[in-house]
Amino acid sequence: MKEVIEKSAKRPRIVVLIGTLVAGAFLWALVPGVMAGDPSGASTYMGDLEGLKTAINFTWVLVSAFLVFFMQAGFALVGVGAIRTKNTVNYLAKSYMDFSLGAIFFLVVGFALMFGGSGVAPGLELGNALIGYSGWLLAGEAYDVTTSMVWLFQAMFAATAATIVAGAMAGRTKFQAYLVYTVLVTAVIYPIYGHWVWGGGWLSTLPFGAGARDFAGSGVVHAVGGFVALAGAYLVGPRTGKFRTDGTPVAIPGHNVTYIVLGTFVLFFGWFGFNPGSTLAATDLRIAVIAVNTFLAGAAGAVVACYTTFFRTGKANIFLICNGSLAGLVAITAPCAYVPPWAAVLIGAIAGLLVMASIWFVEWVLKIDDPVGAVSVHGVNGLWGLLAVGIFADGTYGGVSGLIAGNTGQFVAQAISAAVVVLWAFGLGLLIFAVIKYAIGLRVSREEEVVGLDISEHGTPSYPGPMDSWR
To answer: Phi then psi for 127, rounded to 5 degrees?
Structure first.
């Protein structure tokens, strides 16, 4: 163990390099340029009824951003509960750094790539169908209260996309490699696909239906994170002892079911900021339907997972119940504004079935080790959510109607966006993780893995006193 600690202490600090790059970007922002937008809010807020409406909408979006930020605690609890005790500190450090480091690089690079050219706020006028290129560092005209509001809300989404991968690669991934991945996801992978859908890019203007629609991020956030996670889990390989010599998987129990359940509660609660908050306006009263649909889909996923596991094994598996609920929430994220409540129940129920089938397929057929089921919850059900828009949208909101309303074009647009997100996220994920693996290494040594990443990567145990290594 002493050798492991000494080895980790001598590793080059890639954080220094990252910090140098960030510092250089901030120096650019200090160069005098165009005038700021409205950083004080004095021009945005008017002392009349319209001004009150603006203030209410601002407050709604900011509170929703705070709720989405709180979801990071939920992801941390679920992930920690599903892994061994000896890797707890490592997982918590990754959870904390993916939003901390990710926020900086989303400010420096990602936000401009994603929303440049969208015109959704001041300073975001420049961009094309493939990429945005305005709003860097929230400087110049982007130094504005409206642009800042949009940035904060979207920074929380970028952090969510990044943190999804941590669970799939838990227990054997180098901390420094994870930091590099976090930078690239929040600065490049998430923003560019997000631009294609939310920033006025080419997917949003497809000549089918209303173009690709993803109201709150089944594809943009969850499928992106899920398929990057698939690439990472594949390249890093399974945890030691996960598969027998004949290829059959071995169950490696997590150390705290309570954390998993509490984390799921936190995530469920945060989803009421994730989905209804994506209206970007409290005065859009569709938020009531969105909130109901969100709740029903999460509940339906849990119910289906509960009864399916009970009928199959005679036991109600709480881990699968929680994953069923999360799968329903992921699936409803894209169609939540476009479908009626009865469809939300059906979408969530199908998600509950899909997540269990996918967990089995990933583990038994693909032989990929995904400790928390991130690929199945977020990747597979992110795709299902995109397709559900093209099936169940009833035309009562945003001019989006699917197969049930007699519109086949919308389903075509959704299928194209689903195919693109798989190719983009999985393909670029493979490339990024392969480069990281070659450059600095992706996986810890077997000795470090056996000792536990808490000691080998951070030099401290998660709990005081002796603990069994498997727990």
So the answer is: 165, 175
